[in-house]
Amino acid sequence: MSSFLFGFAAALLLTIGARDQLLVARLAQPLGVAILLAALVSAAITAVAMAIAGDAIAQLLPVAAQRMLVAIALVVAAVELLWPTRDRRPKEPTRSPFAAFVVLLARQWGDAARFLLFALAAATALPAHVAAGGAVGAALALAGGWALGEDLDALPLRVFRLVMGALVLITGVVMGLGVRGII
Questions:
Q1: What does the alpha-carbon distance between residue 97 and residue 80 come to, in Å, rounded to a whole number?
Q2: Total domain count, the chain
């Protein structure tokens, strides 16, 4: 159950203000429920794919290397969170839910939430629970973006992502130093 909760919390918190949530919010009015459905399906696919990848790689590594892999994934996720985004509003949406689905898959593939799901799946014995929690958490954040629509831009998302990035970075660095025996 804790694997599910960690995956849920990680995906929920790290999807807030992410490029995929902003895209869903900005396309909520022109595409309606179709963009929400595309977002939910893409969130499930990417959560499962990253959990499978994390588990598969972890199976090839000794325990110390698994922990270092998790630390590296956390640092990469933190860099993605701290990196400033210059996400432009779609000027002329194609009104194609499939095109939006493909863009969402591409954006989610390497975002901080999925890196953290990768790390959690590598660190735990229950990657299926991590994937399920991650899919539900990301879906909830994306549904929130869809419900807020254009009002999402009024929230202090950049500050939230900087705080989350700092927390994830500190966790990754401490974990990495612990694996190396420095602390």
A1: 26
A2: 1
DSSP state of 26: H
- What pLDDT does residue 131 have? 93
C-alpha 103: how far from chain center: 15
pLDDT, tens digit, for every residue of 161-180? 899 899 989 998 998 898 88
Q: How confident is the model at residue 42 (pLDDT cuts 50, 70, 90)?
A: very high
Q: Are 19 and 104 in contact (CB under 8 A)?
A: no
pLDDT of res. 91: 65
Contact 75, 15 (CB under 8 A): no
Indicate the helix (H) or strand (E) that contains 53. helix 33-59
Calculate ∠ Cα 6-12-15, nearest 5°.
130
pTM of the model: 0.87
Torsion region of 45: left, alpha or beta (phi above 0 gives left; psi -120 to 50 gives alpha): alpha
Residue range of the domain that includes 11 = 1-180
